[in-house]
Every structure is written in structure tokens, then in C-alpha cells.
Amino acid sequence: MTLCRVIRQLVLVALLGAAPGLALAGSNSWTSNGPAGQWMRTFAQSPSTLYAGSQIGGVFESTDNGASWNAINTGMTGSSVFALAVDPITSSTLYAGTTDAGLFRSIDSGDNWTAINTGLTTPSVIAIAIDSQTPTTIYAGTNGGGVFKTLDGGDTWTAINTGSTATIVQTLAIDPTNSDVVYMGATTEGVFKSLDGGLNWTRVAVVPELVFSIAIDPTAPDTVYVGSALDGIFKSTNGGDSWFSSSTGILASPATIRELVIDPANPSILYAGSPFGGVFVSLNFGLSWAVLNTGLANLNVSAIHLDNATPTLIYAGTVGSGVSDYSQEACDDEGTSVTCGACETCSPAFGCIGDVWLGCRVSTHLRKAKLTIKDKDPDSRDRMVWTLTRGEETLVEAFGDPVTTTNYDACIFDESAGPPALVMHTDVLPALECNNKPCWNAIGDHAFKYRNGDGVPNGATKLILKSGVESKTKVIFKAKGELLEIPPLPFNLPFRFQMRNDLGECWEAIYTEAGVSKNDDASFVGKDGL
Questions:
Q1: Burial of 167 (0-12, 13-18, 19+ CB in 10 A)
Q2: Please, what is the end-to-end C-alpha distance for the chain in angstroms?
Q3: What is the pLDDT of residues 79-128, one digit of tens each?
Q4: For residue 518, which of 499, 496, 493 has the smallest C-alpha distance?
Q5: Which listed residue, 309, 356, 448, 513, has the most CB atoms within 10 A of its CB?
Q6: Tell me, what's the pLDDT at 24?
Q7: DSSP letters of 110-155?
């Protein structure tokens, strides 16, 4: 199975914020169920219980999916809980980090707590990370002492700050596939990374300087996201060697991100919590974001958690209004079942949205993918031509067998704001006849050509697929006439053109202002590139 197809399957169950023209499931809304007046800072969950840490009230538990809450603070002398964690193997064992009394442990699901501060030189613990492979190995981030580590489940702690200048550690994250790899986010020092379980640290990001949250893609652990205090979200796809902004659609001023969460079943979906903008969601690996605040009375969000059993049930911890939950229902339009078309995917909360595939092949040279569209009067004069040359290496097998079985779709997605929205779709069907001859023909053993002068049934008149090594691949698509559905012009920028087949293979170009020479209500001419 190709990477593109794998990613497509992940995206198929994705969700995102509403955009104009999307079907909305009317009952999807945030509900606040307490605990009243609490400043919620963190969540943790066992199979039967949801736990929440409050800045002023200690630890609370809910056994009914957040509908009601009870304080569970017996033995805990600290009242300001910023960090919680549940042992992934022994779920009755919990850890709590307080800002006024250090660390506490419970071995009876929170009924009783005991201080575990031996070796800890600061009483303020604001981050906890448990090694999922060896749960007795735990990291604690402190306000004033950097990072501490235990190998015995919290009985004793040791400072581990070699190579780090950070004293205030806001967040910690362990690579789920390699527990020796640990990231920490700090105040004023950015992001540090360790390759040896925290024995040595290296600074891997200086911008943003203040990092509140780190999230690691569980299926691609070199992909790391950080939420900052002022500059939104940053992303690395190479384990922190380089970073780029990933904040399109984050409508918070300042762009403070307190929490980042990745859907473990569908890593294309991310959630972000902001004290100035509420909850944001992305379905495309952080490429763009949209608000998810319907019914959320308090937009000061400091914590987000996805239910372990049902990731479409989301919890948001607010400052002053306790916990709100958001349960996404079946994909429908106010009770009516929705069937999405080609190039679309069904969002459980918001109906049909653009189904953008990631990992598609592109041109290896800038400005070598040209799109021309003419919207004429009469419609019989409409034209569209997309040409991608000098493309990435493509084996002929990637084209499938369009002569008899493989279908092709040309899709255009508006990515100018919020979720990708499908604005055009045309398919090129296999096994069609044109003037009593096959429309498709193989060209030797390396290419295919589709010719259909009438453009029946959807306006497509030509598709050339040429395989080759790097910089030798070529894809040319042409369509015309009344049967071609010209997308509304002018285009919002940026947008994405994809040519893809039902084997999960795809070729694409992204169009931005930098490459566009004409974009009005009658025509578009542009070349790919940022």
C-alpha cells in the first residue's frame, strides 16, 4: 500500500471546523458540566475514570464522561495541580504535579495520595511524562529546577539537565516508538531534545522561545508540533532539525497555544487550546486550522483531552468554568444521512469536506506545473489545461490500468481559510469508447494516453500519463465545453490541484499569489510554487 493511500485512509475519518457550504450536524456543541468555578489545567484518564487537575481545587474525578465531578484530594497538601498522569499498565496508579507542594502518587485510583518528593529540589511541578514501555520511568518538568527523572515510580528523583539551560520546563513528550527520545519545552529557551533518556539535552528550536505544549505524531515520530506563548504553532518533520510555522487559521490574539493534542487513531487530526481563542482543530496535519467553539461559553482554554475509548468525545479545561465536553455525532445534516462525493470526505461533526491527500508527487522544479482556465460565453468555449512536467519519479505501475479498470479524479481544493473545500471535480473513467475505439491507449510500456474529442460525459478530453525517473515524469490534463464544470472564478488563494487515481496514487500542485499571472472572473493562469 502506498504512503499516499495510507494517509488518505487516515484522513477519511477526519473532522474540521465548519466552512460555508458544509452540512452541519446541529446537535454538535460544547456543554459545560463543572466543576463550577474551577481553573482546569490538565487531564488524565484510566479505562473507567476521567481525571482533571485544577489550579485552585486539586484533583477531580468523573466516572460518567464528564457529566459530574468529585474532588479526590485525601492526603494531598497541594491544591494547585498542573500535571496529571496515569500509569499505562497499572491504571490505579496516578501521579499529580502541584505548583505548591511537589509530586504526589496514588495507588488506589486517587482515593488517597502520598507525597513523593525525595530528591526533588523544587516544590513546583508543572509537567509529567511517563515512559509507556517502562512506566516506572517518569520525567517531571519543574518551575525553577529544570527536569527530574525517576526510575522507581517516583520513590526517588534525580535532576537531569546536562546540556540544558532551561529552569522552567512547561511540557515534556516522549517518542512513543523510542523512549530514549524525549522533548521538553521551556520558558525563554524554546525546545530541547534528548536521545539518551534525558541524560544529555540539545537545543533544537529557539523560535518560539516560550513553549507550552509538544505533541508527537504516533505514526511518524519525526513529526513534532509545538504550541507557543505568542507565535502560534510550529512543526518539524525531521525530529526537530528544522521548524516552520503551522498556524494558518489560528484566530487568537495573542496566538497563545496552551495545549496540542493529536488524535491517536487519525494523526491528520489535531486540536489546539488557546486562552484567547478557545479550541481550534485541523484535519490536515496542521496545514490549516478552524475554530471549534460552538456552545463554548469560556474561550480561555488551557487543557484538551480526547476520550481514550471514543476520540470523537473531546474535553476542554477552561480557566474559571471547569470542564466542557464536545460529543460529535454521526455524519449527517440535521438528522439526514450524508453521502459525500468524489474528492470529499465525511466529517462526523460537519458533513462533507474536501478530502485532500498528502504525500502526492510534485514537480521537482519550481513553476513547472501550469494551470489555465477560461470561463467563456457560451459554455461550449470553456477550457481547462493542467500540465505537470519534470515530476518526481513515477513507476508505470503507479498509473494502474486506466485502459480497463483504474479511475482518475481531477480535484481543486480551496485552502485559503479553515478546512479545505472542494471547488471542482472531474473524473476520467476507464474502459470508455470514443468513436467506437477505446478512449484509453497504452503508449509502449511507460505511458498512457486518453483522448476524447467530445468530452462525454464530464468534459475531460485528454489525459497523458508518462512515467519516468526523477524530473522525467509528466501528467497533462485537458477538459472543455459545456460538460466541464468550471469552478467559480476568481480563485481564493492558495488552492491545490490534484490528479489522483483509485489506487491511492496522486500528483499535485499548489498555487499561491507568487505564481499567478491572471486571476479574474473569466480566467486563471498560474504556475506552482510559494
A1: middle
A2: 30
A3: 999 999 999 999 999 999 999 999 999 999 999 999 999 999 999 999 99
A4: 493
A5: 356
A6: 27
A7: TSS-EE--TT---S-EEEEEE-SSSTT-EEEEEBSS-EEEESSTTS
